Amino acid sequence: MNKRIGLVLGLCVMAASVRAAEMADVTALAWMAGSWQGTAGGVEMEEHWLAPKGGAMLGMHRDVTRGRMVSFEFLRIEKDAEGLVYLASPQGRPVTPFRLIESSKGRAVFSNPQHDFPQRVLYWMGDDGLLHARIEGQQKGQPASEEWAWKRSR
């Protein structure tokens, strides 16, 4: 009986989280806005997010190694009929959508289970004032992830 109660409670929490994500407005993600930077393994990283305006947030990411740009990505978060969606365009390729599945103060989780990798994109504001980002999912049948932390640059 206890397992059944736990399962029901878990499903209720999950349903409430999904409903909250569907009802979320892009202004709830204003904590991501700003210019962020960090260095890891010799790679200088920048991520810039414009504040919510007009129902959307626009972002971009750039990686530089030894003075040369090695990677970039255009980003957008907007609301559609199903809720908020994170649209990623790495290297200028067509966008890949990730649906907001969890949102709380200072945390957002986006998911696209059909995508090859990543299947989840997470952002959260750490107690340390750093903007953290993580991508995760399956790659070649194995769990895989990458994680970054950036300090505010402006």
Give the total of beta strands: 10
What order do the strands of the largest sheet run in, or round the barrel if closed? Answer: 1-2-3-4-5-6-7-8-9-10
Taking all residues together, what is the mean pLDDT? 89
Strand-pairing-aware structural class:
mainly beta
Beta content comes to over 45%
Terminal CA distance: 54 Å
CATH topological fold name? Lipocalin
| CATH architecture assignment | Beta Barrel
- The count of helical stretches stands at 1
Shape: globular
* Gyration radius, in Å: 17 Å
Reading off the top of the CATH hierarchy, the class is best stated as Mainly Beta
Total number of domains: 1
Largest sheet: 10 strands, antiparallel, barrel
CATH H-level homologous superfamily name:
Calycin beta-barrel core domain
Task: Give a written overview of the molecule.
This protein has one domain (2-152): Lipocalin (Beta Barrel). A hairpin with a 2-residue loop joins strand 6 and strand 7 (107-111). The chain is mainly beta and 154 residues long. A ten-stranded antiparallel β-barrel has the order 1-2-3-4-5-6-7-8-9-10. The protein contains one helix and ten strands. The longest helix is centred in the N-terminal third of the chain and has 22 residues, at 2-23.
List the helices and strands and how they pair.
Blueprint: H1 2-23, E1 34-40, E2 43-49, E3 56-65, E4 68-80, E5 83-90, E6 96-104, E7 107-111, E8 120-125, E9 131-139, E10 142-152
Antiparallel strand pairs: 1-2, 1-10, 2-3, 3-4, 4-5, 5-6, 6-7, 7-8, 8-9, 9-10
